[in-house]
Amino acid sequence: MSKIFEINFSIKIDGEKIMFWKRKKKILTLTEDEISKLNSGDLNEDMIKEYCRLGEERLKDCLDTKKQFEQKGSILLSIYMPISLALFGLSMKFELPYIFNISAFCLFIGIFFILSSIHFSDYGSLGRHPEDFLGKIDYNYLTVDKKEQALMYAYNLEYLIDTINISDESNNKKQSKIIIAIWCGAISIVPFVIKFLFSL
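Given the sequence above, the corresponding structure tokens read:
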């Protein structure tokens, strides 16, 4: 398995950090098959436990970020919905209805991105489903020897990589959609600004 991350090359001039190069690099990580070939006696169980704890903290941060994005999306949705409907209603009572309609249309596009950011996203979970331990045919997790506990923690560490990567990717998508929705709200004001400027 590989994980992509960014390496930032920078220098300091007069105490200020200046970025002058960025590149992405792949980190090769052990697969489940490679972990199974390790000698459990050579593994440091305490350290692997600590790595698992840190991985779970990282996943928890991802899930907390997910909640924050969804809260922001819900707030924007509660603002955009009534305003867009009000604009459509006002377009029937005033001259130049296209101004109201364009603004409302921009808000509806924002609503679409908000809804798509709240739903349709995959995330990892902090716990594991019992099927992971009871549904295995090739290995009996109920009879794990105490010497192999470190190996089980190593398997869990490998599992955390996928869940964190999936959660990070979903958060990046949520963030992009929320930003687009905010821009849609800002653009919805433009027709009124233009109308005001031309009326001066």
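Strands lie at 2-13, 16-28. Try to locate this feature in the token string yourself.
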